[in-house]
Amino acid sequence: MSTLPMDDFAVANLSRRGFLKGLGVTAGALVIAANWGWRDAFAEEKKSYGADGMPNGWRDDPKVFLSIAADGVVTFVCSRSEMGQGVRTSLAMVVADELEADWAFMRVIQAPGDEQRFGNQDTDGSRSMRHWYEPMRRCGAAARAMLEQAAANRWQIPVGECQAREHRVVHQPSGRSLGFGELAEAASQLDVPPRDSLKLKSPEQFRFIGKESTRAIDGADIVNGRAVYGLDPRFEGMLYAVVARPPVYGGKVVRYDDSATLKVPGVVKVIEIAGSPLPSEYQPLGGVAVVARNTWAAIKGREALKVEWNDGPNAAYESRAYRDSLSKAAHAPGKVVRDLGNVQAVFDQASQVLEAEYYIPHLAQAPMEPPVATAIVNDGTCEVWAPTQAPQVTRERLADRLGIPFDKVTVNVTLLGGGFGRKSKPDFVIEAALLAKEFPGTHLRVQWTREDDLHCSYFHTVSVEYLRAALGKEGRPEAWLHRSVAPSISALFGPDPKHESPIELGMGVLNLPFAIPNLRLENPEAAAHTRVGWFRSVSNIPHAFAIQSFIAELAASAGVDHKAYLLQLLGPDRKIDPRSLGDEWNHGESPELYPIDTARLRGVIEKATQEAGWGKKQEKGRGLGLAVHYSFVTYVAAVLDVEVKDDGALLVHRATIAVDCGPQINPERIRSQMEGACVMGIGNAALGEISFANGRVQQDNLHMFEVARMPLAPKDIAVHLVRPAGEVPLGGVGEPGVPPIAPALCNAIFNATGKRIRDLPIRAQLKDWRSA
């Protein structure tokens, strides 16, 4: 029996009766469904789009549910995972606004993993709000219409005389009213009105959408410890496990000696987990698990374990040698992915050519909460509790690996103590289920340590970016060559393509928005030797770092102000069809609805530089740095005010960020996401590095893989929300703030010191900059 209330995971099925029973809601409740399509926006297939921007052929079934109890409490089921981005609050705000709910009566629970019922639940790609905003509005509006109809039926009057206002339905002529709770039972008997009959609010009627004052719907629970994270579910008789995994990707157990481990008090059993042939996809790496009565005993038991490993095909992976190979590839012709004009002819005749090479190492997501999952397997069923970004993928892989029917697997989604893409891969959940299978009917938790997390992550790709420009009048590029060399995420899923996928190249390379008459983009080969996976902003990070740094170098070479040079390079305001740039992905969105709008890029550059005081005289050792990037259909510019002390110490006095994400649903969370992205981006650039020797990660914990701490964080971060001219659809928010930070930081360091940073991390270079 559980010793912790599991109310967050109570949804068992979506019939009205079953849903209300699962919530513990008494009779007299309204349940309303939102219509939503469920196909993965990043699925690698061509799509056609309807007038509403949704891909044609998407299913239109009830997916997301809203209940109103007899006491008026509104319970919202959130299908997207919450990891600090505030999605549960933001989506609930949208529902509450159209519903005309009182925020004090709003509650939230997390949906279990079930794509058929809830639609696509993958929380990635900065798409939760932009994909769920309209469905959630319709959900709230439909519920409001049903409540108004229920009141009209009770009063036997035309429904047009009834209006929902702040958790009540009011009869406008007489002033009489009924609360939502009083109407819930009757409303629940009505059919959901068709979509085309719904009356959505106009923006001037919004009470929550676009407003600043809405408190977090689950903030109190998070602050006072009631919130349930991956580590929190507790069950009687639980077992705990840690795993000794192969230290090299693709390695295997040769033999192990567990005699000392079994003598450790609390250790129950030692179990070998079979690995999977490469490529590993989301499957566990394999290894030897120590199962114990508590986590500490399991950890001490693993320390006593003696394992001999066969390191496999990646035993020689070494970061310095690999970087040399990437650099060599970058200086030779590669696969042409976009070709405009005649680049070679211009280079042959150019009187001035500038070139530069940029390097970004592997990074680890390192979420505050390392991977953890609890599972129970019994009588052909499996139930798990896990902080997963991908509930349906988790459910599918569990069914496949355990060999049980898909409908016998239940995935309960807890809060995530950070994710950044790491928890999109359910290898850690599969480990828990495989071990729980050895103890039928017993809950078993697999806990990763920080060392486990750093050694066995799905790392952000290492990258070398080589750029070359032939300069013409006023130092502007007449020809531009960019070779991007990096192992691809695609190597997880099939034979290593040794080339970045179109979606990776579409993150800042293929969709280069500058007015350059001759352009050649190449992608030389790079083999993958470790697990490469999603990381917040993905390949936008190395591409933005290289391109925005190179533009600053071009401006300095031309003796032109960086901002003025960047605006000139943008050319005239225009809307670019992403398909004309060879980028048919456009972050999975309609190219008709989401063209690349250079006016919006110009707008965030102007706003950020204006607010930062661009052009003002700086004291010695201090400088401003600028960068801009378009990602996840959002435009972000950043100006960092940086000081470098004589001893190489780096101080970021102020970060000024301008963001144009289209309509602003929850401004407070937009600012919070930009602030967090800024700190993360600075940490990545200044400190972040995962390196390999003999196939092994060299960083053990946060003393070696450092993240930004308070002294490195900006003293002040000012986020300015730019409203575009005209009507545009929603953009992303969670990821677009990261890419411009590293180049803005390095450009600021150059303006402060005259030292150009092309290799990350910059930590050691700053310490030695005086002697450079």
Automatic annotation (TrEMBL):
Keyword Signal found: yes
Residues annotated as domain Aldehyde oxidase/xanthine dehydrogenase a/b hammerhead: 224-313
Keyword Signal attached: yes
InterPro entries from the UniProt entry: Ald_Oxase/Xan_DH_a/b, AldOxase/xan_DH_MoCoBD1, AldOxase/xan_DH_MoCoBD2, AldOxase/xan_DH_Mopterin-bd_sf, N-heterocyclic_Hydroxylase, OxRdtase_Mopterin-bd_su_IorB, TAT_signal, TAT_signal_bac_arc
PANTHER family: ALDEHYDE DEHYDROGENASE (PTHR47495), BLR6219 PROTEIN (PTHR47495:SF3)
NCBIfam families reported for this sequence: TAT_signal_seq (TIGR01409)
Official protein name in the record: Isoquinoline 1-oxidoreductase, beta subunit
Organism: Pseudomonas indica
